[in-house]
Design brief:
- This protein is an alpha/beta fold.
- The protein folds into 2 domains: 114 residues, Rossmann fold; 98 residues, Orthogonal Bundle (Arc Repressor Mutant, subunit A), CATH 1.10.10.10.
- The chain has 12 helices and 5 strands.
- Strands 2-1-3-4-5 form a 5-stranded parallel β-sheet.
- Strand 4, helix 4 and strand 5 form a beta-alpha-beta unit.
- Helix 8 crosses helix 9.
């Protein structure tokens, strides 16, 4: 007997949504159709899962997940498109999708999805996604320097190494590190690293170092890795 699940289909053409709904109804489940994400959020469904397709995918699954989380909607999200490439599927899953369906929906892909739901993967996925969003919110509150220190810390760097990389003094690193730990609510470095992993943030410290400051009151762009020069404290004050 098929599981009675409500599929909230959003994005794509009205014809595509209707075809998906017909297949889902034929398999014994229920479908609700939405032209855009805002419409779904306004109705705030309490159960089932969300199938995002068409123009919705251009926004990125990560953006969809974040917007749903901001509205307090924690339903599993499934991406759907015609002939998805392997990289598209991998990226969608990395950004928070439970699964990726190929359109038109086939029995094999649908059965795989039902099996995941029956095994409790959808529930555990939602729990993990909530933790990911919460971790991202905490990390987003960090200043640029604090984020850089966290990135280098995740690479196993010591305070001295971080100081050389950022061209600041070890004491300044300690201050940024203490502020970072306080904002993350971490008692130990391992807890901060764990939050970074949960947030699924892929940028490395070196990528961060290459970015321009987002606000004028933040530190100046970081110089390439090099031996510490004389007077690092003076350089940090100048930054």
């Amino acid at each position: 007997m098929e599981q009675q699940i409500t599929f909230h289909i959003v994005g794509g053409s009205s014809r595509d949504r209707a075809e998906q709904a017909r297949f889902i109804y034929a398999r014994g489940s229920h479908a609700e159709l939405y032209g855009e994400l805002g419409e779904l959020i306004q109705r705030a469904p309490a159960g089932g899962l969300i199938v995002a397709g068409g123009d919705m995918l251009a926004r990125g699954i990560g953006s969809i997940v974040d917007e749903l989380a901001g509205a307090g909607i924690w339903l599993p999200v499934v991406a759907a498109s015609e002939d998805p490439q392997v990289q598209q599927i991998v990226e969608a899953v990395k950004q928070g999708a439970l699964d990726y369906l190929t359109l038109p929906i086939g029995h094999r892909g649908f059965d795989r999805l039902l099996a995941k739901i029956a095994a409790g993967e959808a529930d555990s996925h939602v729990v993990a996604r909530r933790a990911m969003v919460e971790a991202r919110c905490k990390i987003a509150a960090l200043s640029r320097r604090e984020r850089q220190v966290l990135d280098w810390l995740c690479e196993g760097s010591s305070n001295k190494h971080i100081a050389r990389a950022l061209d600041i003094s070890p004491r300044t690193v300690e201050i940024h590190r203490a502020n970072m730990m306080d904002k993350l609510g971490a008692q130990h470095a391992s807890e901060a690293v764990r939050l970074q992993c949960i947030a699924a943030l892929q940028s490395t410290a070196r990528e961060m170092a290459a970015r321009q400051p987002e606000r004028e009151d933040l530190a100046a762009p970081v110089q390439p890795l090099r031996p510490a020069a004389a007077g690092p404290d003076a350089k940090e004050r100048a930054a």
